[in-house]
């Protein structure tokens, strides 16, 4: 890392997260104008983006090579009052909370109090959503049955396709114009709506090009006043880049990275889509440009590395927009889930690993930043050198990169009906979510608390935490004479609440389609132009909506405990067992010991437990997969938790697997913390029994002590472990390499561990930014593993 | 026919090439003072105290160590990791105890393994009859051969047996052109003295290049509590853990002969 990058990196690490009222004020100003009324909503939205980009501050930092900030300065984080209006008390909480805080200064508070809140109160999308949802939806939401991603943030969950690295916005405008010209007002009843959408895209494209020009203007002024000849040249070169992209297709690595970055800023300024935005298959998309530049002699490996590192810093400057309430609990992190993909296959199915793949891996290792997240796609066609290189970075213990199975991803996408080419152009974003990059809207709608369904089934639909009748009456416990009867009751609870969730999803999709279109994101996503239809309205070539299941390990172990002790061995009556749970195991320590140590558990390659995981998988899959969405897509499942397994755990009493009330659930498809005692091959064999191909992503966390990485032979064996899992169609695996001592010391002396990053679940986070309960859980897991 | 085992562990990455499943057989002709698997020594089942913590409560139970399995059951368990072997070039390792103390069982289980195209490794102390060794060697791809002490009197003192048969058997395996990896515990004051190092150097020089891999296994006291929980004496000798510097010195010394030396399993 050279001095420039060191400085940029340090400045990014030291910048404090702050709420900026800039965007909020500009949006308020825009909507306060009276001349909006006759315009279709989508045109208003495009003009709103234009207004923000024309009037926002242009920030150009010292030594920067890639320019552009979403806010007025690094980590100055804008708000989106049209989506979610922060109250004065929200701002106080953000300012004072111990984890994932944002400084809110007096000026910002004033702007909120005097201008933003008075204008937006009663008009936000969040209020619109809650006013439209049924009482039963709200009851289930409050009880921790599911969460809702779209209540504070817009749908997004998508990735830029390779095509946009070869296309300028001027080319896109030509396509838009052609689409407008071919509208058929005679036969197409939607022609008017399509025209409005396409015109809005045109406005948005222009707005982002103009925004780039504003950077060029400022860079030229800075150059004029710059006394240092070297920096002066640099500033002029940067200005020239901003004059060319994103209007034209990029021709150099510098242009390509700046091109993407303006697009990124456009997407995350238009609205606050979940998972921000993502450059996708970066090594693959940049390689043709890099190769050409190498041949021309206009770039060196060092130049490319420096540009990529400067690019990395830009992501780290952009914390996730502040979340509050339940949404903060399910995903409380500064990470905004931009997950860069390296490796995998080309559109024709050939090995996509190239020299730039290794350069990007070097960048990941050297930068050691929270953002962007990074992953490697490993296909059977990729060389061992590639996975070994990635594992040597994993060894350094900051949780990146995670490892994904390209061959599974391609099968998952094709099963959902994507073309083979679109599938090969895909990958994963966010935590572990599979998508066809550039052609699919794959919207995560919220987590679903699977173990809560069993708790309801054991209590005839009554929520033990509140005493309220939350679910349907599926039978008193004494009426269950066989395990199958109990399992049927569990299944009824799942189906009941999935129906409620799906109804809610369809309402929320329609609200976004109608009220919050995103013409800029739409023009980037293939077939939105062709269809004249917005991304949020199902305009993309493929549209999927996910409900993410949480607690597979926990539910399996609970069912296993009930089947084993109550129905197979008859050592305890079901009603007595339920009483033990109500007492939170008080006075039943011996029984709890039996439950924890002498009961078949998921993750040990033991079919007694694992078969139950498969039964749960089928129930969950059947409840969701293929059910239509209101924007013409289909519902799908995946199995991942972010930090939701901690929140959902807080919403459940004691469980039959020996877990005490309010403790975390298992995460992803990993076994319950400490339940796997037969080593990693057994965990992998259990996890691989699930049919990953019928999901859109699963998450398997494996904690390793550093000793498993101590030499090249060990690395090679870990590589084989990963390859074996992937041969069994496993979707994803990640390794946490830390020692207990490190973690305990970090808890005591957080100041010494500002840079300590651990793998949480599908993403990495600063250890200091995790809640104490999550910190303890990670310590517990680590201790168990190294014992 | 059944064999007496006390454990089977998957993802054993220190017991031969690739990812392996290691089968631990119970019973050993030696009783090394530093043994970290004291439950492996007695050729019969025995009981051991197991402590488990659940929250604040410590549960103490007495559990049986050792169980009987048929060769086919053992092979089925090994085969669970078959895909991992295929990917990594691994296989099954038989350790103990001394696996060849149960020669008929081993002969059958190894034959089954070879029928099923599984790579086989046998971890041995070398103290077995020549006849048994020849039988077992026919189905064994790799021997992990343990060397403890060169001095005869010391060997008897610390392990309970002479090392004559062990050294002869090592020579026999070399003559049979079997693949051998040597494993040597490093016990400060016992086998890292100048005399011992000189004797090992002579032995290793004679074996090289037919044998070229050596694993130094530093003594650790982690098993002390196991002795107590088995109701065994622990304090006949007290050993210390070797320091990194002396381990590196040994690594260099034996490395100079041409051996690929690795510290740790």
How much is the average pLDDT of chain A? 94
Shape of chain A: globular
Number of strands of chain B: 11
> For the largest interface in this structure, which chains are involved and how many residues does each contribute?
A-B, 27 and 23 residues
Widest sheet: strand ordering of chain B: 5-1-2-6-7-8-9-10-11
Q: In the CATH hierarchy, what is the class of chain B? A: Alpha Beta
Oligomer: heterodimer
- Spans where pLDDT lies below 50 across 5 or more residues of chain B: none
Distance between the termini of chain A: 37 Å
Name of the CATH superfamily of chain B = Aldolase class I
Counted by DSSP, the helix tally of chain B is 9
Please characterize this protein's 3D structure:
The complex is a heterodimer of chains A (787) and B (265). Chain A has a domain at 445-507 and 551-627 and 634-676 and 685-692. By secondary structure, chain A is α/β, with parallel strands linked by helices. In chain A, a hairpin with a 3-residue loop joins strand 6 (427-429) and strand 7 (433-435). The radius of gyration of chain A is 26 Å and the shape is globular. Helix content of chain A is 50%, strand content 8%. The relative contact order of chain A is 0.10. The longest helix of chain A is centred in the first third of the chain and has 35 residues, at 191-225. Chain B is α/β, with parallel strands linked by helices and 265 residues long. In chain B, 34% of the residues lie in helices and 27% in strands. Chain B has helices at residues 71-79, 82-88, 103-115, 130-137, 152-159, 164-175, 194-207, 224-229, 244-257; strands at residues 3-12, 20-25, 46-54, 57-65, 67-69, 91-95, 119-124, 142-146, 179-186, 213-218, 260-263. In chain B, the strands form 2 sheets. Chain B has a 9-stranded mixed β-sheet with strand order 5-1-2-6-7-8-9-10-11. In chain B, strands 3-4 form a two-stranded antiparallel sheet. Chain B is globular and about 50 Å long. In chain B, 41% of the residues are buried. Chains A and B meet through helix 25, helix 28 and helix 29 of A and strand 1 and helix 2 of B.
